[in-house]
Write a structure and sequence with these properties.
The chain has 416 residues and is of the alpha/beta class. The chain has one domain: Aminopeptidase. Helices cover 42% and strands 14% of the residues. It contains 15 helices and eleven strands. It has an eight-stranded mixed beta sheet, sandwiched between helices. A three-stranded antiparallel beta sheet has the order 2-1-3. Helix 12 links the parallel strand 9 and strand 10. It is globular.
Length: 416
């Protein structure tokens, strides 16, 4: 999640002990295997680019302005959310013009209408029985072992290659209707797009594609600090992997197209998802709905377990629909919360006029604010809950099934 935290809070979180924040960071880094080579490469790259010009926006009603990579870090210190528009300054303008000129255009979403009741309880009940902590735990153990998944780092590229291999292996027996693609970015860590072709192309043409997203990168106060990123957003990454696994185990195939996205460079200002959204906008790919899964595993001690439904800068009709999914398919309830502008990758899709929503592990104030973006964002502490993460696997699976359907052909051939 592109959460921004005041610098004092960041310093406290980074220290973890009585040492000064930078001293603590160096101590953590020095004990990390492969520290020297990785850090030298990342440090050199960071200093090289720290004065490069970047176009950013801090609110939808504010004009974008030019700053530098260092300027972005200063905003981060000050607790100001932003989108980096340098590579995508016209994002959303094509669809906005189409909507104004021709509201019935097939390139523009229609009506923001979503189901008012659920219709796949029987199939999803079977799916939920196969959900396990084993896969997410094993995947997180590997995913957090990379020194950092910072999008410009060598280990960020390595972690992306591992994720690509993991996802590709999962769907290798379904190549007749599933393909996995890399979406290239100039910084080296590519986004990953998994595309599930539906049984009914006409329905996809009418409705558009349903997208489930997470981001793969991690960050720390400085790029050369260790950033395990277990919760932010390793948890969302493995959540949608597990949802896909159990759906395929039940021989699911959607009636309209579904895609799973693992975005690069969310922490840099939603760079990866903006690039993907811009490509879809330019190609005229219609998006039915997009749900972001970013931070799904933290339960603060002394609080009631809940799903935080982000209520600002999202599609209200889609958010209402997701609340209905929580009521019908999860063992916990939901609470509305506010996050602010550009909180995660769903904002890129909102900008092109698509219905997007964001479900988070708790209300904003009860989420994992002290550990994320530090060396302490690990899964080996009592507030990291795989049981809680499993609820978001349910939400992810029900989201794609209730919106994109379950092919009748596949249903007859599936588990009875």
């Amino acid at each position: 999640m592109k959460l921004t935290i005041p610098i004092a809070a960041v310093a406290v979180a980074l220290s973890g002990v009585s040492a000064l924040p930078i001293q603590a960071g160096v101590q953590d880094l020095a004990s990390t295997t492969g520290f020297a080579g990785s850090i030298f490469t990342t440090l050199t790259s960071s200093f090289k680019h720290m004065f490069s010009a970047r176009l950013i926006q801090t609110a939808p009603d504010q004009q974008p302005y030019w700053t530098t990579e260092m300027g972005k870090q200063i905003l981060w210190y000050r607790g100001i959310h932003f989108m980096d528009l340098t590579d995508t300054p016209t994002l959303g303008q094509i669809n906005a013009a189409l909507a104004q000129a021709n509201p019935s255009s097939s390139f523009v979403k229609d009506g923001s209408k979503f189901p008012e009741s659920v219709s796949h309880q029987k199939q999803l009940k079977r799916v939920f029985q196969d959900i396990s902590q084993d896969g997410p735990r094993a995947h997180l153990e590997k995913f957090t072992s990379f020194h950092t998944r910072y999008y410009k780092s060598e280990t960020g590229r390595q972690s992306q290659a591992w994720l690509l291999s993991t996802v590709s292996d999962l769907v290798k027996n379904h190549s007749d209707f599933i393909k996995v693609e890399e979406f290239p970015h100039p910084w080296g860590q590519n986004s990953i797009l998994l595309k599930i072709k539906a049984s009914d192309k006409r329905l996809t043409d009418k409705k558009g594609v349903t997208i489930l997203g997470a981001h793969q990168d991690s960050t720390n106060l400085f790029p050369f600090f260790a950033a395990p990123g277990a919760d932010d957003d390793g948890s969302g990454t493995v959540t949608i992997i597990e949802a896909l696994r159990v759906l395929l185990l039940s021989h699911w195939r959607p009636e309209s197209d579904v895609e799973l996205h693992w975005y690069s460079a969310e922490e840099g200002g939603l760079l990866g998802s903006q690039a993907v959204a811009q490509a879809y906008e330019r190609k005229g790919i219609k998006v039915h709905a997009m749900l972001q899964q970013d931070m799904t595993a933290f339960v603060k001690t002394g609080t009631k377990e809940t799903v935080g439904l982000v209520a600002d800068f999202v599609s209200q009709p889609l958010t209402k629909f997701i609340g209905m999914l929580v009521d019908n398919y999860l063992d916990i309830g939901y609470t509305h919360t506010k996050l602010g502008y550009a909180g995660s990758d769903h904002a890129s899709w909102t900008k092109i006029g698509a219905d997007s929503a964001f479900a988070i592990e708790a209300t904003f104030e009860n989420s994992n604010l002290k550990r994320i973006h530090t060396t302490q964002d690990t899964f080996d502490h009592p507030e990291f809950s795989f049981e809680h993460l499993m609820q978001f696997v349910r939400l992810s699976a029900s989201f794609v099934v209730e919106l994109a359907g379950w092919s009748e052909v596949e249903r007859r051939e599936g588990v009875n």
